[in-house]
Specification:
Layout lengths: L1 E3 L7 E8 L3 H9 L7 E7 L6 E5 L2 E5 L1 H4 L2 E8 L3
Antiparallel strand pairs: 1-6, 2-3, 2-6, 3-4, 4-5
C-alpha cells in the first residue's frame, strides 16, 4: 500500500517510491537523500503535525509537512493501522 509521507504516523516505515514536486523543492529533497528506493521510518511528529522527523540512510531528517507531501512511500513493517 502506498501512502504520502505527510500521512504517516509515528513508528511507520517504508520505501520511497516516488518524489514529486517541482524545481527547487524536488532538488532539495534529492540533495537530502530523499530518493526512490531509500528506506525510512517516521520518528517524531510535532503536536500540530509540522514538522516531522524521519530516519533516513542512518541519520535523522526533519521535513515540513508540505515537503513530506511530495514523497510517496510504500509501507513495510513498522506500525500497522
Amino acid at each position: 500500500m502506498n501512502k504520502l509521507l505527510s500521512d504517516f504516523t509515528v513508528g511507520e516505515s517504508g520505501k520511497i517510491v516516488k518524489v514529486t514536486g517541482e524545481g527547487k523543492l524536488r532538488r532539495r529533497l534529492f540533495d537530502m537523500g530523499v530518493t526512490p528506493g531509500a528506506e525510512l521510518t517516521m520518528r517524531k511528529k510535532a503536536p500540530l503535525g509540522d514538522p516531522i522527523e524521519i530516519t533516513l540512510r542512518g541519520y535523522e531528517l526533519t521535513l515540513r509537512k508540505t515537503e513530506a507531501a511530495c514523497v510517496e512511500v510504500e509501507l513495510s513493517g513498522g506500525k500497522k493501522q
